[in-house]
Amino acid sequence: MTRFLELAILVTCHPITRQLTVRRVAAKLTILGSGSAGNSAYLETDEARVLVDAGFSPRQIRQRLAGIGRTPENLTAILITHEHSDHTQGLIGIAEKLHIPVYCNRATAEEIGRQLRAKLDYRLFVTGSGFEVGDIAVESFAVPHDAQDPVGYLLRTSAGTFGFVTDLGHVTRLVVERVRAANVLVLEANHDVRMLQDCLHRPWSLKQRILSRHGHLSNEAAAEATAEIMSAGLRHLYLGHLSRDCNRPELAFGVVQRSLQRIGATHVTLSLTSQSVACPTLTL
Fold this sequence. Notes:
The protein is of the alpha/beta class. It has a single domain, classed as Ribonuclease Z/Hydroxyacylglutathione hydrolase-like (Metallo-beta-lactamase, Chain A, 4-Layer Sandwich). The protein has 9 helices and 16 strands. It has helices at 58-66, 85-88, 91-98, 106-116, 173-179, 193-198, 204-211, 219-229, 249-262, and strands spanning 7-13, 16-22, 28-35, 38-44, 49-52, 77-79, 102-104, 122-124, 130-133, 136-142, 151-156, 161-165, 184-188, 236-240, 269-272, 282-283. The strands form 3 sheets. It has a 7-stranded mixed beta sheet with strand order 8-7-6-5-4-3-16. It has a 7-stranded mixed beta sheet with strand order 9-10-11-12-13-14-15. Helix 8 packs parallel to helix 9 (249-262).
């Protein structure tokens, strides 16, 4: 599915000519929250209402949806990137209770089953494949992270394309190729390297995990990734999954903003996500 602009198409039908209008349907994205302790985003189109991850408590998900006039009962699906609790902790109280389909690959589903022991309506896919949820064409792709089979997503709608890569230790060529089509991108900027190295209450083993090629992106790595991913079609860039202990919003914003300025990407709006509050809704 390609991005559509508002346009009129002339169709010749004997014996008369009619003018038909192809209507672009708005897509609305709300980052309900993103950080080391919880991640979830809400995307709404004409035919679908989808969560990408459910990493907050059911109560928090309900409250944050209520803040934009929505309820979990009306969700069409929940897409899961991987099984870590900051992406799945709301599944029992939302997906299981309300019988909402959960889309993920088999390895992720099996690990969620071991952790949560919940009876979920799984809709399994093979990593790298695509599927449809209402009028959203979903593409999955592998990302390097220390989970069973973690994925990123590209969600194509008639209004625009949305990319989600919130947990990855480094940006692979595959990731660059897949998310370069995004008009809106949620990209991890987890930590400041010096703050992480100097953090007194984190053991060295945890620091090594975060810094590894299957851990999390630093601010500098996110900035480098932004330069690689950049396209004329990218309009909105959200920095996600910021560490509360080993990063500061102004640091992440500054590093990536300077990268955008350096490459002349003045057409991109840079925004920060928050662990504690939802971002303003973006409408395409």
